[in-house]
Amino acid sequence: MGRKSGSRGLRSEIPAKRANRNVNPMTEISSRVLVVDDQEAVREIISAILTAAGYQCRTAADGLEALGVLDSEKFDLMITNFLMPNLDGFGLLERAKKKFPSMPVVVESAAQDVAIAGEFLRRGAFDYLVAPFEREQLLAIVHRAMAG
Predict the structure, then answer these.
(1) What are the pLDDT digits (tens) for 58-101?
(2) Which residue range forms the structural domain that includes residue 72?
(3) Model confidence over 33-49: pLDDT tens digits?
(4) 75: which residues sit within 8 A by CB, 6+ positions away?
(5) Helix-strand-coil split of the chain, %, nearest 5
(6) CA 120, CA 123: separation in Å to the nearest integer?
(7) What is the pLDDT of residue 30?
(8) Directed axis angle between helix 89-99 and helix 114-122, to 10°?
(9) What's the start-to-end Cα distance of the chain, in Å?
(10) Domain count of the chain?
(11) Which residues fall within 8 angstroms of residue 73, CB to CB, at 6 or more apart?
């Protein structure tokens, strides 16, 4: 039998880079995200979710490492944990916003304290994501942050 026509068939013929909504069709470069968390498993999970959605990810184990990465590479978004050794989420947010005021920063944490979330937002975070979170929650926040 013949192949059914429709958008599903057409979409499969579009090259993967062009079909991905996180890729600029003019440059074919996907959005870059820096994921900062002192727990390797959390970094890997967030990076895997975002990479599968078409984002390019780089990771850092704490705020000081993240600042070094930010000095050498450009990112469209940073996702950082709240409680980390060496430089916590508040310190990283403050320093990152001074150097890169237009880069959105999403804070992820298991701390379900409204006061902490409010303080991050007051200091310039784009959003606060409470862990554990669903894949869809993460992607929705990242998409909103990238949309401006």
Answers:
(1) 999 999 999 999 999 999 999 999 999 999 999 999 999 999 99
(2) 29-147
(3) 999 999 999 999 999 99
(4) 32, 33, 34, 58, 100, 103
(5) 45, 20, 35
(6) 5
(7) 80
(8) 20
(9) 46
(10) 1
(11) 32, 34, 58
